[in-house]
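Appendix B. Raw example, untouched.
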Amino acid sequence: MQDPLLKYFTSSELEGLFVVEGKDYAKNVTVEQLLAHTPGIGDYFEDPVQSGAPMTKLIISEPNKKWTPPELVDFTRKRQQAVGVPGQVFHYSDTGYILLGLLIEKVTGKPFHENLHERIFQPLNMNDSYLLYYSEPSNPKKAIQDIWLNGSKL
C-alpha cells in the first residue's frame, strides 16, 4: 500500500495529474493515498475545468460516446488541475478510481472486467453484475433504467 504509483506507472502516464503550484508531486503519490482519496488528483466527473466543457456537459451533448479509462485520465490531465498536495487533502476522485482500475490491470495482466468477474462477482454469486460495455452478466441481462443527468435523459 505504501508503494509509489511510479512503481506501476510510467512518469508519462502520471504527467500533469499531480501538479500543484507548478510542482509535480507524482513521485510522492502512493497506492494508499489513491485508495484513501488523498493524492490531490482532480475528479473528471465533478471538478471544474480549466478549458473546454466540463464532463457533465460532454456526456449530455454526446450521450453515445463511450469514454475509455485513458481518455478519462487524459481529461483530468489536460482540462483540470490537482486540488492539493498528496497526503494533505481528502478529495473524492473518480479519476483516482480509474487509476486504481488501471493499476489492477497492470498487476494482474488481465483486463479490469475479468478481475471483477473472477475475484468478486463469481465468488460472491453476483450473477446479475457486470461491467457495462466490457462484459456480460452470468444471468440473462436485464434492461437498464433510463439515466438522467442534470435534468437531461441520456
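End of appendix B.
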